[in-house]
Amino acid sequence: MNIFRLLGDFSHLGAIIILLLKIWKTRSCAGVSGKSVLLYAIVFTCRYLDLFTHYVSLYNSVMKIIYLVSTYFTLYLIYRKFKATYDRNHDTFRIEFLILPSAVLALLWNHEFSVLEVLWTFSIYLESVAILPQLFMVSKTGEAETITSHYLFALGIYRFLYILNWIYRYYTENFIDWISIISGIVQTVLYCDFFYLYITKVLKGKKLSLPA
């Protein structure tokens, strides 16, 4: 494992912790897209079906379990414990328009036409667009709390670091995975406008606002 992947993993973990702390401390999930979290739950479930059949390392197994447990716990907080604070009126992105194309693409372009491999590929494609409901929600409300902005920034940095990881692996291991690379680039591009606003506003103590 190289430093870019390690930093990417911990950036991803940091994003999850930031979101959980935000919800737990404020006792509210206002401003959080339950649909984006639901998409990430689908992503991790499909990707980590091999958790008990294919052992890579203790680190790998522990991180998979953390991602799964923390994401489903976040869903519980949003849709059960603090559901009265969930803003359904603004979390209206049609996620079927993300799930169905990702599923079709996974059937058409994958490394191997097997159940686990197709589901893994589906998770890669779906993850590349899973943040769209959250960004859509921010654009509808017109602004995001600072802590929500930190969560989004950490997720964006995670994907950027993974692109560096793929570049590093190409030059050191002669390994290239076009499915992961293209999906990662798509996901990073979706964050570009947010990154600019985060750097120019949030880091200067202002509340982030996205154009409607």
From TrEMBL:
GO aspect biological process, one term: protein retention in ER lumen
Presence of keyword Transport: yes
Domain of life: Eukaryota
Stored PROSITE patterns: ER_LUMEN_RECEPTOR_2 (PS00952)
Gene Ontology MF terms: ER retention sequence binding
Transmembrane segments: 62-79, 91-109, 115-138, 150-169, 175-199
Pfam family, one: ER_lumen_recept
Any one GO cellular component localisation term in the record: endoplasmic reticulum membrane
Keyword entries, A-Z: Endoplasmic reticulum, ER-Golgi transport, Membrane, Protein transport, Receptor, Transmembrane, Transmembrane helix, Transport
Keyword Transport: yes
Membrane topology: Multi-pass membrane protein
Subcellular location: Endoplasmic reticulum membrane
Annotated PANTHER family: ER LUMEN PROTEIN RETAINING RECEPTOR
Family statement drawn from the similarity comment of this UniProt entry: Belongs to the ERD2 family.
Protein name: ER lumen protein-retaining receptor
Native source species: Adineta steineri
